[in-house]
Every structure is written in C-alpha cells, then in structure tokens.
Design goal:
582 residues; mainly alpha; Transcription Regulator spoIIAA; 2 domains; two-stranded antiparallel ribbon; 26 helices; 7 strands; transmembrane; membrane; transmembrane helix; SLC26A/SulP_fam
Length: 582
C-alpha cells in the first residue's frame, strides 16, 4: 500500500526536513486541473515580474538582462527545490543598495563572486538547521528595515524620475547622493517627469478600479507606446543599455581570485543574511495567506542553490519576493509548478520578444520602483509601533535610521541586539517574589483529599520561618535583583522556604545565585528548603551544588514547612518528602 503524503511528511529525520514541496505536491496527486491553475498563476506572476526584474537590475547599477536572468534561473530553482508551496524567487528591491554598492566597489566580477559565496553560506545555514533562529528577528526590526529600504529605493529613482543628467557618478549613500541630485536639478527633463508621473498614475488607478489587471505591465507598455509614438526625448533601455540579448548566456564560473573573494566576503554575508530574512518572511506571509506550513531549512537550501545558479548565469542575488508570492497565491496557484512556469514564461519572453524591451523608458521603470518603495513602507504597522511601548519605538527608529544612513547589515544586527535587550528587560520584570511571614496554608474544601495540617498551629505563626515564592522564568536578567532580595535574610530567621513551583525555567546564572545564597544560609545556621521544583529546574540546581547539606528539597510548601521546623541537623525521615538526588 503506498504511503500517504501526510504520513510521509510526518516522518522525522533529515529526509522530511529537506524534502522539496514539489515532491509533496506530486505525492498528493497532480493532474490537468492543477496544471491549468498553475499555468494561469505562473503567467500572471511573469507579467508582474517582467518589468520589475528589469527595473530592480537597473536600479542596482547593472543591465536589465541580468535581472531577467535572476528571475529565470533563480526563480526556477527556488520553486523546484524550495520548502514553500507558493514562494516566488527572483531579484528583490531590498538588495538594490547592497548590489549597487558591491558593483561600484568591486565591479560585476565582484558581484558574481559575492552572489556565489552567499549561495554557499545559505546552503550551510540550511544544512545546519539555523533557519528557525532567523525567524526570531523582532517585528519592529523588520518594519523599520523594510521602511528604510523603501526610502533608499525611492531616493535611488530620483535621477530617472526627473530625467537628470549628473555631472559625476551617483553616490550610493543617501547623504552623499542628495547634494549631487540637488546640483543637477537644472537638467530636469519635463518629458521624463510626465512619463514617470503618468506611469505611477496608471498603476494607482488600475490597482483601485481594476485590481485583477496586470497594472505594472500595462503602465510600462503604455509609457513605451507614448514615448515611441510622440518621439519624446526620454532615455530608454535601448538608448542606455543597447537592448536585451535574445537568450540565456552559457553558464560559467566567475573568477575566484583569492583577493577578490576576501574583499567581497562581507558583501556575501550581507546578501545571505538579508536573503534568508527576506525569503523566510515571504514564506511566513504565504503560510498566513494559505494555512500551509513551509520548511524553513529546506527553503534556505533552495535559496542557496538558486544564488549559485544565478551567479553562474550572470544574475543577481535571489530571494523570496513577497509581492510576487502574494500575487501567485491570489492568482490561484496550486503549488511550486506555478513558480517554475513563471520562470519559463520569462524565458519565452527573452527568446521571442527581447527586442521590444528596447523601447521601455527608464522613467517608466523608475515609476514602477517608486510604487514598490511606497508599498514597502508599512504605514499602519509604523503608526501602531509608535503608539506602543517606548522600547518598540526605539528599536523601530534605530533600525530605520541605520538602514537609511548607515548599512543594512549593521541595521539588522543592531536592531536585533536592541530587541533582545528589550526582551530580556521585559522578562526580568515579569518574575515576581512574594514573602509569607508567617506562612498560612491555603484554604481547602472540607473533606478534600489533600486536607492536612502538617505542622502545629504555633508553628504556623512562627516568625522565625519565612516563605519566599518566585513566579516566572528565573534567569540572568533577574538573578541579580532577586538575589539581593533573597540575600536579606534576617539573622533572627532560623529557617526559610523557597517555593519554585511557579518557576518553569532557571539558567546557570540564577542557579549560581541560589548556590551562593545556600552557602551563606548554611554558614549562618539557617535551614534552607526548596519546594515545588520541576525536574529541569532541580537538575540545574544540583549541577551548581545546590544540594545537601546546604539545602533540602520538598514537593510542597507543607512538606517544606515540616522540614523547616525539624531540629538541625535534619533527621533522615525528611527523605520521605525529598526527591531522590544524584
């Protein structure tokens, strides 16, 4: 009897973690109806990806054909090998700044080597199963990061939006770019401005009144027709790049010079870090839209293979594209075949209609990227975060400002570090300590099985025995504060009970704090009893020396109070309420 797809997916082990979703879909059964749905979705996504891929490549400082090669080769491999049913891979706007900077400093060869290395890094990340940890990037970091990228993309399109003629190469940093653009304002081309504004207006109008239509392709095609028919003096792909070759280049390995490899390694790490975050974020969005679940490490392996393949064909960095993935889902895609067909449709365009791309005006593509940049800024999310806590606001603003004015990788790392510190602070505030002096047992129903009076009434009012009850995770963030509180044991106390029944976790710092407390209590002749520990908490305490004769363990506070009122040294009968210790 053949194994069902659900049973196959549920098997533990490496094979289940790295099985491409294409295999899962084929196991479920794939027929003509599914192929038809995937073909329609693939064509729809290809129509969106066609102008966008060229626009991203041009904004990245390379020729538009490299953007198409990226979408064709990288997009095919992402869908073939990926861990998401609906992920669409290709060039992304988030990489524009990194790619442009790499090209300016290291040239095309440096870009290809960095892309190849980033693919190898992504393969390693996926093989080491680190994909789960990448998804721990805090929400304010992703919102601030994408908003910053949107600002950078919009700024990079000002030259083509206005049809400016710059006196020198356009700098990549925003603060260096602004003076150059300002000094070039007298060279504004009104026709280019009109084409750009018309493109933006058409896209916005179609999104509002005909959302099912391919707005990007219609706007760009319309702009090209107007420019050619009216003979407008506007730069086009043909006048600036000489057109697009008809066909894919033969695969070739970039020059792997050791000095060049060392020089572009930081760029490659940035590509891999940004690509992993972008692709997994896109996969999570797809899961939310469809109710499916992706395999993060399998997806990262596919992204690595796609980047290697793109570099061999002269393409750019590949990642999961959120907008194109969402378009794929809305178009009714059934599975990864849609993404593979999207790549084949783009290849067909390159083989058949590449000469037509020569007539596309650069101002129209700049208009397309301006719309993309606007959509990248999550306005509602930013407003919500600004109205929330000061900590989230600080993480958002720091990430945004570092992205715009410093470096993308630095923005992610600093934002993540700030988010982690904020989380530690919040968790340290979540743990509480209660003091019960004297201890009074909780009320129980009459005749309840647990009803008992484990010690005499005069013992219950004994002020020399104090009970501390901790609630929450006890870790290094709270160890110092709680340690100072617990350390204030009055000399008049002859015993105290530490109730850890509400502590689900304790780390080595907290365990070491309790070990120091136990040693101090033992020196002062104060009996210390710990109650209610879980197996994990007790194991951590024992590893750090919190054991006899320093302390005794009890299952409940009542048992602990029995032990606390026994004469010291405690008799062996205390073992009836003490778990076995190694």
């Amino acid at each position: 009897m053949p194994t069902s797809p659900l049973r196959a997916d549920a098997r533990p082990g490496v094979a289940a973690l790295y099985t491409p979703k294409l295999v899962t879909v084929l196991r479920e059964g794939y027929g003509l109806a599914q192929l038809r749905a995937d073909a329609i979705a693939g064509l729809t996504v290809a129509i969106v990806a066609l102008p966008l891929s060229m626009a991203i490549a041009i904004a990245s400082g390379v020729s538009p054909d490299r953007g198409l090669y990226t979408a064709i080769v990288g997009g095919f491999l992402v869908s073939l090998l990926g861990g998401s049913r609906f992920q669409i891979g290709g060039p992304a706007g988030a990489f524009i700044v990194l790619v442009a900077t790499t090209v300016q400093v290291h040239g095309i060869d440096g870009l290809l080597v960095a892309t190849l290395l980033s693919g190898l890094i992504l393969l390693a990340i996926g093989a080491l199963r680190l994909g789960t940890y990448i998804q721990f990037i805090p929400y304010p970091v992703t919102v601030g990061f994408t908003a910053g990228i949107g600002v950078i993309i919009a700024a990079s399109q000002i030259k083509d939006l206005l049809g400016l003629t710059l006196g020198r190469p356009e700098p990549a940093p925003l603060l260096d770019k602004i003076p150059v653009l300002w000094n070039s304002l007298p060279t504004v081309t009104p026709e280019a401005v009109a084409v750009a504004l018309g493109t933006i207006a058409v896209i916005a109008a179609l999104k509002r009144w005909a959302p099912a239509w391919p707005s990007l392709l219609i706007a760009v095609t319309g702009a090209a027709v107007v420019v050619v028919a009216a003979g407008l003096p506007v730069a086009t792909i043909g006048s600036h790049f000489g057109g697009i070759p008809q066909g894919l280049p033969l695969p070739s390995l970039p020059t792997l010079d050791l000095d060049l490899v060392q020089a572009v390694l930081p760029n490659a790490i940035g590509f891999a870090l940004l690509g992993s975050i972008e692709s997994l974020l896109s996969a999570v969005v797809a899961d939310g839209m469809t109710g499916r679940r992706h395999r993060s490490n399998c997806e990262l392996v596919a992204q690595g293979a796609a980047n290697i393949g793109s570099a061999l064909f002269g393409g750019l960095c590949v990642t999961g594209a959120i907008a194109r993935t969402a378009t794929n889902i809305r178009a009714g895609a059934h599975g990864p075949v849609a993404g593979m067909l999207h790549a084949l449709f783009l290849l067909a365009f390159v083989l058949v209609a590449a000469p037509l791309a020569s007539y596309i005006p650069l101002a129209a593509l700049a208009g397309v990227l301006t719309v993309v940049a606007w959509n990248m800024v999550e306005k509602d999310a930013i407003v919500a975060l600004l109205r929330s806590s000061r900590g989230d606001t600080a993480v958002l603003l720091v990430t945004f400002l570092l992205t715009v004015f410093r470096d993308l990788t630095e923005a992610i790392l600093v934002g993540f570090a700030l988010g982690a510190v904020l989380f530690i602070h919040r968790m340290s505030q979540a743990i509480s300590i209660e003091t019960h002096t004297p201890y009074v047992a909780e009320d129980r129903a009459d005749g309840a099985p647990d009803e008992r009076t484990p010690y005499h009434a005069e013992d219950a009012s004994d002020p020399s025995v104090v009970v501390y009850r901790l609630s929450g995770a006890f870790f290094f963030g709270a160890a110092s504060t709680l340690g100072s509180v617990l350390d204030r044991i009055a000399d008049a106390r002859r015993a105290f009970v530490l109730d850890l029944s509400q502590v689900p976790f304790i780390d080595s710092s907290a365990a070491n704090t309790l070990a120091g407390l136990a040693r101090k209590a033992h020196r002062q002749g104060v009996a210390m009893v710990i109650s209610g520990t879980t197996a994990g908490v007790r194991r951590e305490l024992l590893l750090h020396g919190v054991r006899r004769p320093l302390v005794s363990y009890a299952r409940t506070i009542e048992d602990a109070m029995d032990l606390a009122h026994e004469p010291r040294p405690a008799p062996e009968r205390s073992e009836r309420s003490e778990p076995s210790q190694p």
